[in-house]
Fold these 3 entries.
Entry 1:
Amino acid sequence: MSQTRVNASAPFKKKGALAPPRKSLKVPRLFIFLCLSPWLFGIIFFTAYPMVTSFYQSFTKFNLIDSPEWVGLENFNRMFFEDDDFWISLKNTIWISAVSIPLRICFAIFTAWVLTKPKRGKNLYRTIFFLPSMVPAVAGTMVFTYIFNPAYGPINKILEKIGIDEPPFWFLDPKWSKWGLILLGLWGIGDTMIIFLAGLLDVPKSLYEAAELEGATGWQSFRYITLPLMTPVIFFSTVTGVIGSFQYFTQAFVAAGQVNDYSHSMYFYATHIYHSAFKAYEMGYASALAWFLLVITLLCTLVILKTQKRWVHYPNGSLFK
Amino acid sequence: MSLYTAEQHALIDAQSIKARRAKKWNTFLHMVGNHSLLIALSAIFILPLYLVIVISLMSKGQAETRSLWPTPFVWHNYVEVFTAVPFLKWTLNTLFVSIMGTIGTVVSSVPPAYVLSRLQWKGRQTTFIIILSTMMLPGQVTMIPVYIIFSRLHWIPSFLPLIVPSFFASAFSIFLLRQFFTSIPDEISDAARIDGCSEFKLMMRIIVPLAKPAISAIALFAFLGSWNDFFGPLLYIVENQDLWTLGIGLNAFQGEHHVDTNMMMTASALFMAPVIVIFFFSQKVFIEGVTLTGVKG
């Protein structure tokens, strides 16, 4: 603050005095405020206020027309002890996270790793692998429920041709419907794959050359070079995967609507919130469900963060010091 | 491949021609193996897209026979789809929401990103952390009160709840832009400031033109985000059929009126087409955006 401008007539005593004193330029407070104002307005009215209200409403009975009525912990009591759909949706959600998050990571590493191999045609293959992740979720799901239809969809015909005699009924069979959704998710692996691909291309070539000189096999250099260096990306996609899977909605909702999912095999947590809020108009109960989702998501993220030290290697850590 | 040590060079020289030939053969086999794997994977990724297109060209009867090739090609499907379902209206609605949403996101996200990256001020770091943490917040937690706000404003059903929030900046876009703005050298700003350029002019005339790639990336993500969105329209416009977007229309129409499968596939193909065309023209921007932030939209 007390920095003074360099007086042109005074002889320069210190070398550093030549640099223009940046702090003497005023910080334009009004400009900063104006620039931030859209965001500030948004965060107050579309994030902060709704979070507080929804927390309050989770202890009330509220049907959108009458004013909210305080019921204490009744909503949570109902959730855990009276609502079968809550448990069904929770089980389905945990099942799909537990299966699809690891599968997606493995498949993303695999496709990205295959893409680093060829000398020619890399871009073409990358485009093809990435393309399905761009397809609108509704269109992708409609197409999948149709082509996997055992009666008139062509997928089972192809499976029969390659020697699978009794292919599953996919979305029509409660035991297989979630696998249909998982395949749909794996088809759209593109965006996750691109992050892994960037990670793989960052691994210094010299490490692989050194390993080859030492006589390491392909698997060994994958296991001891590639995999440890990919752990930050694996970590990142696990966290976003957990957060995402509790919000998994569109594909499951559209698929369930297409095939009349009476057995609720594609009824997930986000679907349950949607039904409670916008079909049954139980806003208080739905808010309780939403807050439980937030708590679970935070807990899972914290647990993954805690285990981070054990398995995530950052490049500036052990490997190159 | 070229980082051989002197010892290795000696070793290679000592190898017989035979061994070298074997090595060449080996790399050739490797190449064949890699490409067959890549082609097989490509076939799997392409298969559903291929099937949508062929089924969309089949007659109504043939579309339900598990065929893999249309006989004959019913190009007329692509005309009929506009009368079988209100396809044009859905497309125009989706286009309107997506364009307005894109404008809103760009206009409202550039200024916050600018002050977060190009100016020093107290609380900057805290603000940035708040923005990052809102990116992680599940939308379900705020969804109900926001719905109530819009319903009190009598904005349901209308396009307003889908468009207005985008004018209040998106955390993801601010984040992406900030990363890019930070990489522009400070000297440019300093020079302009010393010449008496106002901060607003500096942002609009100097930084924004330099950040065109990043701005087109957030515009693309915003556009595709709205184009592909299903949940927002499901909450806010389902009640009025005149407002239906492609996603809602495609999903709900079949429930209410019976639509033939070939028509549904034709409509799906047309729904995907713009996205795929946009992707082909802007692949680089896209992939860089995903790599920079780790998420899509």
Note: Residues 1-17, 317-321 of chain A have pLDDT under 50 and may be disordered.
Entry 2:
Amino acid sequence: MSRFLIKSALAGFLFISFMLCYGAFCDYFFSQKRYLDLSEKKQWVLAQEGETYDYAVLGSSRAYGAFDMNLLDSLTGMNGINIASNGSGFKDNYLLLSLFLKSNKIDKLFLQVDMASLNSKTSFSNEFHAFTFMPYWDEEVVREVLKEEIPFLKNSVSSIIPQWRFFYFNKYFSPKEVIRRVQLSKIYKDSYSQTKGGILGQETAPKKGEIKTYSLPETVNSEDWSYLIKILTKAEDAGIKVIFFTAPRYLDHQEKLKTLLSSLPNRKIFPDDFNYSDQNLFQDQGHLSYGGRKIFSINFSASFNSLINSKSL
Amino acid sequence: MYWFVFQKNLRFQNAFILLASYVFYGWWDWRFLALIIASSAVDYWCGIQLGNVIARRRNDDEAISTREKEINYETASAAEELQKENSKSVSSLSVTFNQKFYLWISLAFNLGLLGFFKYFNFFIESASDFINLIGFQAHPSTLNLILPVGISFYTFQTMSYTIDVYRGKMEATKDPVTFFSYVAFFPQLVAGPIERASHLLPQFYKKREFEYQQGSDGMKLILWGLFKKMVIADNCALVVNPIFENYQTASGLELIMGAVLFSFQIYGDFSGYSDIAIGTAKLFGFDLMTNFRTPYFSRDIAEFWRRWHISLSSWFRDYVYIPLGGSRVSRAKAIRNIFIVFLVSGFWHGANWTFIAWGGIHATLFIPIFLIGKNRAHLQEGEHLLPSFKEVFQIGSTFALVCLAWVFFRADTVGDAWGYLSNIALRPFLEGFRLSTYMLSIVLIVILISLDWLMKGEHVFNFRRPALRYASYSILIGLILFYGVFFNPQDFIYFQF
């Protein structure tokens, strides 16, 4: 028995030591700016450092593809950045904004809200990209959210070794990924800088054929709502003015959403002159084509400029 | 606790196992503990009653045979002899009736539980479909039933006890703690192996002392089982699920890959669980029966069924096939028996026509081998390190047939299974196929097959050189940590049965 116990204890010790060491390595390696994968939008946002912007656009893929950022800059006379990313709900947005604000400054936040992001569980295939934030365990805001999200961290026994999290999402933190990141760092390719975080034009041709329509959830998830409020609080604390907007949806004026947001005191921009029934402006029901993006940027800047002129901001 | 505190007292050890088993099961849903307790109580009682009846019959038989001897020597009137003959036949009749009565109580209760929780809705819906088919209108009302985890396993295990006592193969146990522990023994409670009372129950009576080799073998089996489940099965599932969900639009090659990978998914999933269960039992000083012996190296379907889910196939052999007459009846009846066993075996898996079709396919594949008398052709393992060309062909063709049958097992409906198989031929063969999607699964399966082949018929990691042994442990742990699916893992497939 004692032989078995000694061997088991030794094996357990080696196992835990390995996890701690590999976890410590991941903590270091994956948080290094030079090893971030800049072709992945969230990581590109996290790589930004020491910048000051007049505004930032935050939200899901609909916000990511809503603006021609260079055009919007020229129309508003401001310097902005698009930090919205695919499949992001408010939980993702909250953490991304928190980490972004650690080393960057913004004055205004254009926050994209729609019924999908207010009910992320039913709308997104992956409601929260926890793995993106794994290496930022040292940040309290990250720790608080992840502890609630990951079973290994929720459990009181396994939470003693938080390095578990890298194995929980091993697909993103494997030795193979380490090698890939090292290779990537040698060929620095930052395609987002030229679009200021916006989507590249050629990726979003207008939809050929009929656009399939689908309806968004009608209810609001309380957790999503609470993260929306957390974003507002975070912005308020940093002295940032939050302006709500929603990217156009084909044949859908999103009236329910507008009614819902009316309970919040923040400013809203919902350009009325956008043609919601012109199929050429969309690549699918929820996402604009490059033509639609240009028109929406113009409409949005006009609304924004009138907001500025009315001295409401 | 088990080894240090309770080692000196067998009853405490058994009680500890019982408590641990109930906590384990109750963790899933404590309300269903009542079912296990009821099933155990009924069979415990039936066992005792059967034991009493059998003991009484033995006593009666002994008394009668003694009396008969006396009659030969004494002078007795013809009337007295006649009276005794009559009473003897009455006694035998009532004993046989009582024996059957208690057996039927056990069978009715356990099959009733199974029938209600697992098959009630299926029978209602099938009857309604049939009524609608013949032109009448039926509006069935089904029940919203939760299928208790492991119900098919523990009911079969407890029935095997009553049947063995009924057959006089084993004595009824009078120790309730031991019997209840045997039924609920947590390592194999929810997904087998389905143990026989004659194999497992005596181990509860034997003083258990920790043996290094047994403990070490247990740990190795657990590691091997985790690899099969977390690395092989769950990675295959990530590829297989989308293919089965979208079989209408998948290419022919994708559909073939889906069927092949599902074969490894279910093997990794189920045999992985069995290994974990057997390994865990070893840590408690118990030896459970082997449930899988490298089934995909089988050279024909008959051999496959001697290697796949052995505890279930041998259960059906002993408690259904042989009582029906097995193969020692006319050809027609033997074929009927084979069909019954395979169909029931399929139906055991779930209340769906797909499982019955799966059983039917296996029966159809088995019968030709049976008819030419080759069903016991491959009782021995191949002895060579590498298989011959003939063996490769036999193994390959058997595997292909097994894969075909798995499509029915995996599909939601028989129509979907037909659609899936016909689309292999009808859909463009290579359209949209990307080898990279399958690469990880293929590499992992090659590792599994190689290790399975090397360890064929042996204990896992039975390498003589310590360096080789420790290297293989480390590699396996590494593979689990880096390629195991921790995020959104799949439930064990057999939990649903």
Note: The two ends of chain B are 32 Å apart (CA to CA).
Entry 3:
Amino acid sequence: MLPVEMIVNGTRRNGRVDPRKTLADFLREDCTLTGTHLGCEHGVCGACTVLVDGEAVRSCLLFAVQAGGSEVTTIEGLGGPDGELSAVQDAFRQEHGLQCGFCTPGFVVSVTALLHENPAPAEQEIREALSGNLCRCTGYQGIVRAVQRAAEAAR
Amino acid sequence: MKPAPFEYHAPETIEEVCSLLAEFGDDAKVLAGGQSLVPMLALRLTRFEHLIDVNRVPALSSWRRENGTLVVGATTRQRSMERDAAVADAVPLLAQATPLIGHFQIRNRGTVGGSLAHADPASEYPAVAVALGAELEIAAAGGRQRRVAADDFFVGTWTTVIAADELLVGARFPVWPAGSAFAIEEVARRHGDFALAGVACAFVGERARIALFGVGPAPVRAPDAEAALAQGADPAEVAALAVRDLDPSGDVHASSATRVRIARHLVERVVTRVQEDLRAAG
Amino acid sequence: MSASTAGRFVGQSVKRREDPRLLTGHGRYVDDVMRPGMLHCTFVRSDVARGRIVGIETEAAKDLDGVVAVLTASDLNPHAGTMQPTMLLTTPGAPLRPLADGDVRFVGEPIVLIVAESRYVAEDAAELVEVDLESEPPVIDVEHALDVGVAVVHPELDTNLGAEMAFPIAPELAALLDGDNAIRRTFRQHRHTPVPMETRGIVVEYEPAGGVLEAWMSTQNPHEAKQAIARVTGVPSHLVRVQGHDVGGGFGQKFFTPREELTVALAARRLGRTLKWIEDRRENLIASNHARADVAHCTFALDADGRLLGTYIDHLEDAGSFPIGATGGAGALVGLLFTGPYKCPQASLRTRAVWTNTCGRGAYRGPWMFETVAREQMVDAVAREIGMDPLEWRRRNVVPTSELPYTLPTGLPLDMVSPSETLEQAAEIIAYDEFRAEQARAFAEDGRLLGIGLGLYVEPSTGMMDPMGTETAVVRVDPNGQVTVSLGTGSHGQGIETTMAQVVAEELGIDFDDVTVVQGDSAVTTFGRGTGGSGTAVIAGNSCRSACAVVRAKAIEIAAHLLEAAPDDLDIVDGQIAVRGTPSRAVAWSEVARIAHLETARLPEGMEVGLEATATFKAPPFSWSNACHACAVEVDRATGVVTVLRYVVSEDCGVMINPMIVEGQVAGGVVQGIGGTLYEHFVYDDEGNPLTTTFMDYLLPTTTEVPTIEYGHVETPAPTPGGHKGMGEGGAIGSPPAVFNAVADALAIVGATIDHTPLSPDVVLGALG
């Protein structure tokens, strides 16, 4: 077991982990932040996406020990303290960008990162950027509209 | 799907990494971006008693332009190759190839060195390295270093000349002369998937290099096609020469014949583009 | 959306109640459930498709630190009750068993159950188990599974024929089918699988002293799960509780209670421990349920004008080894529905379900939909053969609205549908004629292959088999006037907490925000049908309506008493019960509710205290919805890549409760259909080894493979109170043939043909030659 310390959603988190424990499992179990979901555990579906030092990454492909000293943001850390939805979260709601909600945290985190880097993406750019996140319920229709809406709202 | 247990090491110098590799040999594996290795560990398709995380070695994580060469440290994130205008300026083919790699979340962690050392037959960077005539820098314990030309570096599926006690520390991409033309194209089942076939090309004056990927265990040079391109042959002819001796394996995604057919089409497209670019440049 | 049917809430795209928690990471899925002392399970599974278990060595696994139990068939199977679903208890099916016993019958069959302190340790232990299997030649090819001399998948059953239904062929029909104007084609649909983004999973807690079993499960049907768990564990069902909470998609895979969930429940009961099993993605692909593996030999007999005179379909469905639900399929409906929305005087059929040594078949969004695939692809093939545009053929043959009700040649009564209207609307939205011109120009000038395809279908409701046709709603008004609705549903993305609240708020005349829906929990809801089979709007919706009618009538009677007015003169609007035309003579809904509970002396003489009602709605045996899908593609001649350029759905689901949710359901189904036709393929080699076991090989469509979907809505009346029709599955029914037909249309320009899917570059380039 190795010690690990990181800041998650602004809070310092300490733990002792088996080095093979993924960051995803550390967040879900040790930090009891179960908003980050496991859809495949082999780095394809994107449901586990979190921000590590501001960059969107697949938390199932990082070991918790690798995130030591980093700032991690999960879906739980994106909205306001009283449950207010961020602009991206609200856009998803307005545009019906979610149904069962399982892939949603990964999408919302990815979109948050995307818009931070590219605040006015064209539709094709949106589609290409999000092709690493799988959804089975929405057919992506509401998701693409949500990104466009969030980008528009920020202007 | 959880990985098998391993001992974790996070050295901070190249020498420490190499000592660990010398000590553990085949029982150790370098962990860079993890975007290819960790899925295999999770699926228990592979396992190692020791993982050597090289992400905390500062000497590996940066890139610089050194006169006529872009020197890229092995753990440079793939994303920096697509973000920085200086890369696009120095080695356009590297900047063009990078967005084709997977998805942006993968490129945020995936490394240039990791992709080269992993040597997936369908990946872009090995073909780019071969097309440009890059060199790979390999270190071993005791301060030993060697450089290997890309043409000699990739020897088979997931196999390079890196020995069990060696570490890829960087890639040196030559900056081609002003007015050079570059193109890379691939066809995949979906955006971001591994290429069914792909072609990278660099061309200036009479120097033409074509590297195909996804159609053999390692990137495939096409010397006869290159000669034809250098002599101004038309794209269809260059394409026919490029695929003449190809014999790729097929799988659930595409048969051998399909890959060859697509490769031929892509060579034609790529050659058309570089010829047009050179004509436009005057 | 017709203005006449849109109300204050029903007909509006009300934003979902579920969203805030799901968007902020506060959903509660089964893997989020943490119970004290909980242990983690994994299975050791067969790596051969068929074979004898010679021996199982578990000592090394048992000795591993952190391992609590290693269970085999002898530990569990003798204690297991039946594993068949409730509504199929008397239907013969595969001999289901918790763990493989003596032999294995598909790659992935669970053999050993490991219980450990973490999933990590459980997987370490799994690697230490040695299973000695003697493999035997498996039955993999369903089209040869009935040949003489082929091995039998289930020795207990001595045949590989799981089910068969055949209608006789009248001599007149036989003559037509053998005649000169008969056209024959074979269509195959390949094996694929539902792939919800959340895999399956269960947490089971058994408290031995009281004999109570509590389970949390990723399920579409908590009441069914409760019954099934009770049967297999022997715990009386009233002592079993199943909660679904948030469920990450199902598409049919989680409608019945699958094997591993039942096995883990049984193990929890036997061990007296709390067990969690979360399926991983590889297990989900290999061993949950497969679908869509069908073959049909079709014959259309036509007159000289291309009108249908008679049809025959000989259908074969691959049931796999251990299907979920008898044979897992819906072969009977495939045969019965084959002529679909077209006029046809005579039809006959044979449908068979056959066992193979592969993963069992299970329900997947429109389990019978192969009838639409085979028929619509046949329509296009036939139209091309006789030189008629496929749209024109459909126009010529579709049952016109004026001829409804129309009895299908197989006897099913078709009524209150609008296939001809949706056909015209889809054609108009996609600009069919303009596309034909563009298609011709693109080929003539640039040699490009564009194609357009249609998929026209009618979809029956599932009123027929109990309990699918029934739902019970309890509408309960609190002393402060707020309403709780409880339903035996199992929402997994459809927004039931929102849509049913819309219905109740509308029916009662109160605010949407004052209504909350409780569902997904067998302990606090009445036995219900779960969520599936396109039934929520019709069946759950109407049960809510019926219960609301009782509550509303009582509230009005109370208000009439308080206001000294006649009940017929009162309306409930915006939470006020007022005399029509005299708004000052009013009493607040909340006041009526308060009095009903807390000032009962003011109630009318003899009236029962309280304000709540329970009502059940049973759907009529047949009600239909319908849609027309239209798809435009480009086929790249050099690479075989198919690009979907446009996708149009004109659908009729009667009155929409929430248009936003309706379109979302359609969109999801359409993209599953695009995925299934172009990308997804579960592949076995000849030995029955799965080759597509991860998301790297089983390809789901992403944002870049699908276009923006365009919708048109037609609204015809439904034979049910709210005017709704079921529509959750339709998107996945019309899409595969629309995409296939579009590609076939493109390839036909150069004389190439396709007859199987998925339409990968291999298949397309193979067709182009």
Note: The CA atoms of residues 633 and 644 of chain C lie 4 Å apart.
